[in-house]
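Justification of resources, computational component.

The compute hours requested in this renewal are based largely on the per-chain cost of generating structure records like the one below. Each record pairs the submitted sequence with a full structure-token output. That output is archived, and it is also reused by downstream analysis tasks.
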Amino acid sequence: MFYLLLTSLVWAFSYGLIKGQLTGLDATAVAALRLLCALVVFLPFLRLKKIPRRHAWRLAAIGAVQFGLMYVLYLHAFAHLQAYEVVLCTIFTPVYVALLGSALEHTWQWRHLAAAVLALIGAGIILWRDAPGSNVAIGFLLMQFSNLCFAAGQLAWRQERRRVPDAGEAEMFALLYAGALGATLLASVFMTDWSAFRPSLTQIGVMVYLGAVASGLGFFWWNLGATRVNTGTLAVMNNAKIPVGIAVSLLFFGEAADLPRLLASIAIMFLAVALAENWFRGKASSRPSNH
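The structure output for this chain reads:
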């Protein structure tokens, strides 16, 4: 769980940087450049000799879905939703992780689904303001497909990782970023006017940091952590980053939030992790199922 918590903290700081430094830049171009930086970071570790060709293509496909297609759908949603509505729509990800995980592992864990629903409630407490308007259906659907891409990618990586035991995570992760970059660049052909994309030196520095650390190390740590916890805990941690992000915004970026709701959200998230890890029976279940 350490890697998932670490990634949540790194991503929490990213929100303030994006809001304060990258406003006005083409979002698809920013996503493509972030993924390019992530690929550059992990390219020196790539060991193709340890990865059979069929698995290399599968890893690239996983990256294209989990990171590339997810980014494209996510960015499109902003044309139909307010920012807080986009964040609100992400709270369904744990349910998708729990349901897809049960299907992939050919078993049904009611405890994991219950933990995912608790995580949804915990995130909803601090995110919900009022009912979305009737004109947000397209944005809502885009976000749900984006959530499905991220959820499916995490679980597909867990399964594919087990099939290539001779290679380390870092030795194969560049393939995920290569697939993601390819998908994002393909989208940018139709969505980005590259001749008008002129970031400042400061913005370039921010994009390099976000690409190398938040995207590069962040997604790597997240998928690494995904192989070390059970499906229920993984589902919960997909929403744990929300109260962490708000706490960082309060402490470091001077933003305001409802403190009682924040504390209630964190308490319910902790309860969800406890349920997923089966702490109530005194037996931690920190390893992913091998069914």
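The radius of gyration is 19 Å. Residues 283-291 have pLDDT under 50 and may be disordered.
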